[in-house]
């Protein structure tokens, strides 16, 4: 019989990867035997059973696709630090191309992968150190691109969170103020949107035409909303 006592943990990691999760989710840094004793369940009945009763396995492998030499791209979690750094410009370029094609969700996923590579490297540096800052300055434009995708996907609160995190570090980032202003406007945070757009103009007066268009759009939506509210609540207070 083959020794398969470690296979359940390997299989759980592979299933996490297939689901887009961290392959080491739920594991801590200890030996494999300690992992087995620490976890009552791996989250999959078949793996729990195999863990209790190891037995010989036969693997049936199905070929899903054949890729041309040089076309395969590793997932970020599987890359070395150097591979992550080299991959970021390529992933960024792929994201830009997908965005130009109108494939916004796919572009967002690419930007996310590039950010994940840099974040992983940044975690190994002392916060505020020159290397940490250099990585952060590479993350910021990718995060702004990601926010642009999320604006188009109407995921406004995520945009608010990410842009605010950028502005907490870089108070003069015009693009972050502009995208956050658009997100505030979309969720009816009128005063906050106006404040962000005012900051955009203070930092870059040449953007006045673009900002004026956003403010006019916000005012038009407010008038429309007021009219709808009057119809909706008509007669409530006269009864």
Automatic annotation (TrEMBL):
<dbReference type="InterPro" id="IPR039663">
    <property type="entry name" value="AIP/AIPL1/TTC9"/>
</dbReference>
<dbReference type="Pfam" id="PF23322">
    <property type="entry name" value="PPIase_AIP"/>
</dbReference>
<comment type="subunit">
    <text>Interacts with RET in the pituitary gland; this interaction prevents the formation of the AIP-survivin complex.</text>
</comment>
<keyword id="KW-0677">Repeat</keyword>
<feature type="domain" description="AIP/AIPL N-terminal FKBP-type PPIase">
    <location>
        <begin position="1"/>
        <end position="63"/>
    </location>
</feature>
<feature type="repeat" description="TPR">
    <location>
        <begin position="174"/>
        <end position="207"/>
    </location>
</feature>
<dbReference type="InterPro" id="IPR011990">
    <property type="entry name" value="TPR-like_helical_dom_sf"/>
</dbReference>
<keyword id="KW-0963">Cytoplasm</keyword>
<dbReference type="GO" id="GO:0003755">
    <property type="term" value="F:peptidyl-prolyl cis-trans isomerase activity"/>
</dbReference>
<dbReference type="GO" id="GO:0005737">
    <property type="term" value="C:cytoplasm"/>
</dbReference>
<comment type="function">
    <text>May play a positive role in AHR-mediated (aromatic hydrocarbon receptor) signaling, possibly by influencing its receptivity for ligand and/or its nuclear targeting.</text>
</comment>
<dbReference type="InterPro" id="IPR046357">
    <property type="entry name" value="PPIase_dom_sf"/>
</dbReference>
<dbReference type="InterPro" id="IPR019734">
    <property type="entry name" value="TPR_rpt"/>
</dbReference>
<protein>
    <recommendedName>
        <fullName>AH receptor-interacting protein</fullName>
    </recommendedName>
</protein>
<keyword id="KW-0802">TPR repeat</keyword>
<dbReference type="InterPro" id="IPR056277">
    <property type="entry name" value="PPIase_AIP"/>
</dbReference>
<keyword id="KW-0597">Phosphoprotein</keyword>
């Amino acid at each position: 019989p083959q020794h398969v006592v470690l296979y359940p943990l390997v299989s759980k990691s592979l299933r996490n990867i297939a689901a887009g999760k961290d392959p080491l989710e739920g594991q801590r840094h200890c030996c494999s035997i300690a992992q087995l004793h620490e976890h009552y369940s791996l989250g999959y009945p078949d793996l729990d059973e195999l863990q209790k009763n190891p037995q010989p396995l036969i693997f049936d492998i199905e070929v899903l696709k054949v890729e041309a030499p040089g076309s395969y791209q590793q997932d970020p979690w599987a890359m070395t630090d150097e591979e992550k750094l080299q991959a970021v410009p390529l992933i960024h370029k792929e994201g830009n191309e997908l965005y130009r094609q109108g494939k916004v969700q796919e572009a967002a996923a690419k930007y996310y992968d590039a950010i994940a590579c840099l974040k992983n490297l940044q975690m190994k540096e002392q916060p505020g150190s020159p290397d940490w800052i250099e990585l952060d300055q590479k993350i910021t434009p990718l995060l702004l691109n990601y926010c642009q995708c999320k604006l188009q996907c109407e995921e406004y609160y995520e945009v608010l969170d990410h842009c605010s995190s950028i502005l907490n570090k870089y108070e003069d980032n015009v693009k972050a103020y502009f995208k956050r202003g658009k997100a505030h406007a979309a969720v009816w945070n009128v005063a906050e949107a106006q404040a962000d757009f005012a900051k955009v103009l203070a930092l870059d007066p040449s953007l006045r035409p673009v900002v004026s268009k956003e403010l006019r759009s916000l005012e038009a939506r407010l008038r429309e909303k007021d009219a709808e509210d009057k119809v909706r609540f008509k007669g409530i207070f006269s009864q």
